[in-house]
Amino acid sequence: MIAWPTGVAIHLAVAPVDFRKAFDGLCIEIVEALDRDPLSGELFVFRNRAGDKLKALYWDGQGFVMIYKRLEKGRFKWLQQVDGDAEGEVRLSRSQWQALFEGIDWRRLESPRKCLATATR
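Structure tokens predicted for Transposase:
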């Protein structure tokens, strides 16, 4: 797993994309569908329609880095489309991104509850 710099925003595209698209095609998706700048240094994550492939695109300051992963069994856990609305994106935490990349259901990750303990004598 590539270690991303701390603070890098990670955007998950809700709608599946045509995986014949490479760097330029995904940049167009980022601009048109997500209304974002592909040169921002943020990480953009896409999936194919079947849900078994994932592509991520990242500008590192010198060029684009693309990550492509195919699951041999199963599908990546994704958001359900609500009333046919497949536009937009969701921001992921680093933990959610790592879980998604490993094929784990990132939607179930929760921060532990804060303990409201007090010191007693």
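Residues 10-108 form one domain.
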